[in-house]
Write a structure and sequence with these properties.
Radius of gyration: 73 Å
Strand order of the largest sheet: 23-24-26-27-28-29-30-31
Number of strands: 32
Low-confidence stretches: 1-10, 382-397, 871-878, 885-890
Shape: rod-shaped
Mean pLDDT: 84
Structural class: alpha+beta
Bound molecules: ligand C2E, calcium ion
Distance between the termini: 94 Å
Helix content: 40-55%
Length: about 900
Amino acid sequence: MIRTIGRAIADRLPSLRTESLLPELAAIGCFLILPWIGIVAALHHEYYAARAAAVRSTGNLAQALEESTRRTIGQIDYILLSARAFRTAKSDRFDFHDWARNQTFADKMTAQISMTDPAGLVIASTIQLVPGVNIADRAHFQAQLDPTHDDLYISRPVTGRVSGLQTIQFSRKLLDRDGAFAGVVVFSLGSFELARFYESLGLGDGFVSILSSDGTILAHGPWIPGLTGTNIRDQSGFDDMLNHSIGSIALGGTPRRAAQIASFRRLQDYPLVVMVGFDTNTVFGSYRALRANALLSGAAITLVVGLIGLLWLRQKCRSLLSRRALNVTLDTISQGILMVDARGGISVINPPVLDLLALPNELPEAALKYVVARATELIPAAGGDPAVCGMSGPGSGSARDGRLETALENGTIIDVCTHVLPEGGFVQTYTDVTEQRMAHAQVEHLAHHDGLTGLANRVELRQRISEIVGADRSEGTFDALIMIDLDGFKGVNDTLGHDAGDQVLIEVSRRIKSLVRATDVAARFGGDEFAILATGLRQCEDVVPLVERILRRLGDPVQMKSQQVRVGASLGIAFHPQDGQDIDTLFKHADIALYSAKAAGRGTYRCFDQQLTLAMTERRALESDLRRALDGDALEVYFQPKFSSKSLQIVGFEALARWRHPTRGWICPGVFIRIAEDCGLINRLGQKILERACQGVATWEPRLPVAVNVSVMQLHDDGLKDHIAAVLEQTGLQPEHLEIEVTESVLADDSQTVLGNLQAIKAMGIPITLDDFGTGYSSLSYLRRFPFDKIKIDKSFVQGQTEDPGVRVILEAILGMCHNLGLHTVGEGVETEGQREMLRAGGCSELQGYLLGRPMPGNHVQDFIRAGGYLPDIAGAPAEERQAAQAMSL
Ligand code: C2E
Ligand code: CA
Ligand code: CA
């Protein structure tokens, strides 16, 4: 239902249909029509006013003319009756001319007065009589023949037979004394003259007419030839004239005469009508001018209104189109938009509002109120202040613009943005920000956690440490920052690939997590570096069980798909607050402790103390000094001879690196080789020693083989074999002039590169010796992994056998085994004759040791060889070597 309501509200918004423009069209229509109504009304009024004025004027004139006409006809009748009276009285003695002379005819209109005999013959006339003129056929004669009437007869205009002019004949019958008909006396009134008389009234283009009662024009002024005698019976309004004695009539125009407005008056005593008319051109002249102006103005108004209307419509269309676009937008955007007006009515709403407000499917009738109420709840600050959604004027109410986020029951998070309108009401938008928030949370998580293992990362750990550092330490507890570095992890990565490496890291982190408390923080910094922040320790020693458990647990093999992988760990611990009051110091000191643990042979832990800092500082200094030494020429190579155990002939030398520090003197190779390995200088160092050693051999006579020690890290370098080949070529040595010594650790690292390098070197014809044999855990198993040419028995066995019979047994077993395997053996660290004898007796092939020859500088070697090599006195060793031996044994 709510959906329907929402839809209905949305539909209420206008779309571009003709109906949408109806109010505007109606308004424009009104604006177009109204001026015309005014114009028509004004013109109408003007027309009738003009007409009324004309009717009034003509009416007045008609009245005056009626009067004058009546008097004139009365006079004419009087004259005629006078003639008759005289005729009757005097009978045959009546002298017409005598009588006529006594009559006064005031105007020229009188054409003539004549008299006939009973037969109609004109017998007398005031003008010259034409003999024989008879008017017996004329109407004005005929009319008088009727003995029952004795009236004045007024004829139609006729052409006088005596006067020859157009005249109106007034006739009276003449009677004898006995009353018999004696002819007629006729008064002829000249039409033309009459017309002139009327013209003299100054009616302009108006007219005056005398009509007979049947509509015949008897006289008309101004004179219009041919008009008199015509009839106006056919004119509309003529019937009015018949029925009324006074009135007005509109006369249509003719080719000869414009249309007229005329007033008429019927004469009381005579069957005549006086008519006075005005030309409509004159009557309506000003009206017509006004009408022309009004029409022009009306057209102008229509044009202007039309244009304005068009603009308005265009504007309206645009607004409708933009509203329609808004509608489409509102319908299609995922954001919900709601506008509530000051009275609490919804003026805009789109469908997502309903979803986003999670309104129930079934809503009562007051659904819209419910929507408004729900929206009002979401207004910040106001909290449903009625001032917002209702009845508030500008500035009232406590509601403010703002946004808030709300979580719905279904878990959706909505961002509600409210804008309170100044005139009251508000606009609210609803945006589903669930995904954004989740993504944000995920980003937040990623920003604080390691992607691979899910442990905290450095950022998170630092944050947690900063909380501890800033916390109140009144409880007197301690916190431990434990840095963990995996031993041998690089080998896993190199040999088994990164996926396996990742698995190991995941397993390691799982183990670490299982060992720490929930309040502790386990973190990974990337690579194989981990850390633990153990908090709230009562005393520093409390951390020991934890680190031991970690060492044990991380030392356990990790089961991969087809094999087990073993990685160990070194741990460095710094305590808060005593080892550092701030994050960086704590980290630095934990790092130093870790370094110390690694330097101590790995697989162990160290707690920070100030001594370590000193050692660390010293080490750093040595590191940069070594770098400088390598850049310059401070590294030297000493050569220690090896002898045949049977003949005691020199069979070769071992090249040993020597570094005489400018201030510290001789530095033990065990120390600087480790530093070189740790800080990545070992390849350069190894290359230098190899070059020097080979250069040395090239100068000897005879050329005896030299054994060069190669660190496991050098064997990770793909370019090693090429470099060896290049050096051999440069120095002109044969492969058999060189031997490579590697320790067991080389094979503990299962890397393919290492093994490949070893095989390549062996394939070049260079013998490979396994150094320090017996010191590792699984020395024997290494013998199966690579076909070594020689085994160098570690000096601890050589020297230990004199005191320890057990060691002697092992030594004998090793020698026996090597003999059986056909391997050459070298006894190292032979210092006594007893040791030499024992080795010789046990079948050891070669001997090396102070007893037979100490390491010596390269420039002593040739003399040594020349002397046959056997210098039984230890004091015979070069002074520098003795000095070096003392320094290094410290
Ligand atoms: P190493 O390869 O086992 O070398 C033999 C060590 O035993 C040398 O110590 C040598 O001076 C010492 N030595 C020889 N005869 C006797 C003896 O009769 N008694 C006693 N006590 N010691 C004897 P050095 O020169 O101090 O070298 C220590 C280690 O440093 C070497 O052990 C080797 O692992 C490493 N090293 C030395 N030079 C190089 C080098 O150029 N490259 C590499 N990678 N390592 C080197
Ligand atoms: Ca060696
Ligand atoms: Ca050795």
